[in-house]
Amino acid sequence: MIVHAYAAPSATEPLVPTTVERRPVGPADVLIAIRYAGICHSDIHTVRGEWGPITYPQVVGHEIVGEVVEVGAEVTKHAVGDRVGVGCMVNSCRECENCRAGMENYCLKGNTGTYASVDRDGTITQGGYATHVVVDQDFVLRVPEAIPYEAAAPLLCAGITTYSPLAHWQAGPGKKVAVVGMGGLGHMAVKIAAAMGADVTVLSQSLSKEADGRRFGAGAYYATSDPATFETLANSFDLIINTVSAPIDLRSYFGLLRLHGTFVSVGAPPEPLPVQVFSLFNNRRSFAGSSIGSIGETQEMLDFCAERGIAPEVEVIAASQINDAYERVLRSDVRYRFVIDTATLGA
Ligand SMILES: [Zn+2]
Ligand SMILES: [Zn+2]
C-alpha cells in the first residue's frame, strides 16, 4: 500500500511531500488511518542525524492517532472504527526478561522504534507523518472518547514519558514535585503531577510561562536563571523531573532534593555530564533516568488523562508548515506541541 507522507530526503534538507509504502496487513496487524501526528523534538534530532546516521528518505513521527480501517484475521484487541494511537515503539522481542515483565520499552534486545528502526522484516520503520500506518495490535493503544484526537497525539510520547516516572516514583498527595523545563514534556509533567495530587513547582529558565504553569496546576514557579532560586528551594523536593535536553549543572539541582529525593532525567544532552557524587550523599539522594513507558502503562496514562480531563495544549498545523514548525520548536516558540493534521498530507 502506497500512502502520502512527509519525509526528510537527507540530514540537511527540509522535509518534502512524498509517498511511503506500508506492508500488507498481516494476521495480527491493524491498519490505521492517521488523523493527527505530533511533532516531537526527537523527530528533529533524528532526521538531522544528530542521534547517529540514518537511512533516507525517512518519515518520522511517533505521536500518532487515528481510526482503525482494517484488521488482520487474528486481531482481537481492536476493531474497525476504533479510536487508536501509536507511540514511540511498534514491537519488541517479547521474550526477554523485561518484555516478559510487561516492560517492552526496556526490551533487552531493543524495542523496534516507530521510525528509523530496523523492523522484523528488515525494512526501516517509517513514522506517523503519513496518512496510514500498519502496526501489530499489541502496540496499538485505545484512545478514550473523552480526549479529542488532536490533543491525544502528544500523549503518546510527551504524555507517557512524563507519566511513567511520576507514577514509578509515586507522585501524589504529600509529595513535592519539581518539573524542570516548560516545553512539550514539561507542560504535560505539570498537568499529570498536579492531577496525581502532588504539590508541583516549575523550574523554568524565565518566568515568561508562569501564568500557563499555574493554569496547568503548578503551585509555585521559579526562574532557574536567578541563582537565589537554588538557595530558596534547597532540600525541598521528593522528586524532580528534568525535561531539558541542554546541559545543566546537576549539582545545583541535586541540592534541591530533600531526604530520599530522586532527580529523574527524561531529557538528555548528547554529551556526558559530570556528576559530583558527594552531592548525592546528603539526604541520600538518587539520580535516575526513565525512557517512555510500557504499552500497559501507556494505556493506563491515556485512561487517567481521560478520567481527569487533562490533555496537552496543541497547535494544529498543515503539512506545509512542518519545516517552519521545526524552527519554532528549536526556538522554544510553541505552546506547547505542534500537531500535524494529516488530512493536509495528500491534498
Ligand atoms: Zn518523542
Ligand atoms: Zn525484549
UniProtKB/TrEMBL annotation:
<keyword id="KW-0560">Oxidoreductase</keyword>
<keyword id="KW-0862">Zinc</keyword>
<dbReference type="InterPro" id="IPR011032">
    <property type="entry name" value="GroES-like_sf"/>
</dbReference>
<dbReference type="InterPro" id="IPR020843">
    <property type="entry name" value="ER"/>
</dbReference>
<dbReference type="GO" id="GO:0008270">
    <property type="term" value="F:zinc ion binding"/>
</dbReference>
<dbReference type="InterPro" id="IPR047109">
    <property type="entry name" value="CAD-like"/>
</dbReference>
<protein>
    <recommendedName>
        <fullName>alcohol dehydrogenase (NADP(+))</fullName>
        <ecNumber>1.1.1.2</ecNumber>
    </recommendedName>
</protein>
<dbReference type="InterPro" id="IPR013149">
    <property type="entry name" value="ADH-like_C"/>
</dbReference>
<keyword id="KW-0479">Metal-binding</keyword>
<dbReference type="InterPro" id="IPR002328">
    <property type="entry name" value="ADH_Zn_CS"/>
</dbReference>
<comment type="similarity">
    <text>Belongs to the zinc-containing alcohol dehydrogenase family.</text>
</comment>
<dbReference type="Pfam" id="PF00107">
    <property type="entry name" value="ADH_zinc_N"/>
</dbReference>
<dbReference type="Pfam" id="PF08240">
    <property type="entry name" value="ADH_N"/>
</dbReference>
<dbReference type="GO" id="GO:0008106">
    <property type="term" value="F:alcohol dehydrogenase (NADP+) activity"/>
</dbReference>
<feature type="domain" description="Enoyl reductase (ER)">
    <location>
        <begin position="10"/>
        <end position="340"/>
    </location>
</feature>
<dbReference type="InterPro" id="IPR036291">
    <property type="entry name" value="NAD(P)-bd_dom_sf"/>
</dbReference>
<dbReference type="InterPro" id="IPR013154">
    <property type="entry name" value="ADH-like_N"/>
</dbReference>
